[in-house]
Amino acid sequence: MAKFAQPKDVAAAFVDALNEKNADALGELFREDAEFVNIKGQRMHGRKGIIKGHAQSFAGPLKGLEFAFEQVDELRVTKDVVVLHVHCRRAGLVGSAPEEPTLEPTVLELVLVNGPEGWLAAAGTNVVQASALPVV
Fold first, then answer.
1. Which range of residues forms the domain containing residue 87?
2. Model pLDDT for residues 27-72, shown as the tens digit of each residue
């Protein structure tokens, strides 16, 4: 298992795992007891559930997609807890017919905890990015 020295290293490894369609590598970014909610609202429990859920997605709706992380914003909560907001673009690969009906940008939120294994995600959620809304 890789040891991440900085929170943004986790985001870089996340996009690599997405583009390689490597659910095991993606699972290594999460703590054993982590939770993940995907773009469709499906909740994945624990590292094993995250691996299983992403393996199914890589074989189906994410199969023909390529990902790019355009912006990674870091909010430090404590010295050992960071929230990342990752702005993600998805695009269909040449010759692919992705099942995903929408390719709007998404925002991936990761709650990272620094421990003996380095920075790992304790929780993650991916949502479709809203268009610019007026600030109230």
1. 7-128
2. 999 999 999 999 889 999 999 999 999 999 999 888 888 999 999 9
State the DSSP string of 72-94: EEEEEEETTEEEEEEEEEEEEPT
Amino acid letter at 48?
K
Number of alpha carbons in the 13 Å side-chain half-sphere of residue 61? 11
Residue 135 located in a structural domain: no
Q: What is the C-alpha to C-alpha distance for residues 102 and 73, in angstroms, rounded to an integer?
A: 24
Q: What is the pTM of this model?
A: 0.86
Half-sphere CA count of 135, side-chain side, radius 13 A = 0
Count of domains for the chain: 1
**What's the CATH number where 93 sits?**
3.10.450.50
Mean pLDDT within 6-14? 96
